[in-house]
Amino acid sequence: FQLSTCLTHEGFDVFITPGDLPKEQVDYYYGIGTEVKTVTPLVKRVDTWNKTPEKKAYFGIAEDSSIMTTISNHLDARLTRDMCRCISEILKKSPKTYYMPMGRVMDQEELRKGFLSEVQDRVIFLGPQENPIHLSRSMSLYLNDFPMSSGFGLLDAMRGGCPVVSMGYKKIDGGSVYLGRDRVINSGKSEE
Q1: Span between the terminal Cα atoms of the chain, in Å
Q2: Which whole-number Å values give the CA distances from 180 to 15, 146, 150, 172, 187, in the listed order?
Q3: What does the alpha-carbon distance between residue 98 and residue 27 come to, in Å, rounded to a whole number?
């Protein structure tokens, strides 16, 4: 079981999910020999959230700033050089914007090298969060990782009301499964 990771290859006996999956995804998993099991939902209930989203001061930035985020327990693998370059370009064009991914990072300094030096001070790793859905309520935009987009991180952000951007990938990916193939960037071009 890996939260926010869609399987793309054979070799797993079972995929454990916190909720029902779309039929297309279940059929895909059975097609590669993987059984799907649903367990009690892992998503935090709304009644565990603070009444209002966190103010920007909570993150140590000005109130007129914007925050982009990604949620994953595998940020080292998910934040590819290409994705870091794209995020860097957005940050260069928007000087009041920060990128604050949530989740485990094994080597922050190594991962930080993937971002352009002139924007590295606006890349802030928030680390694992007990309730990323609540924090996503304070974010301006969720960037689903690419080229392989996740599913549960995207759902967490949407549950918190954060607008999302996702790229489609081959047969199956979280963005296409949950948003629909026609609502994701399908070209595979990171500049889009």
Answers
A1: 32
A2: 21, 16, 14, 11, 15
A3: 39
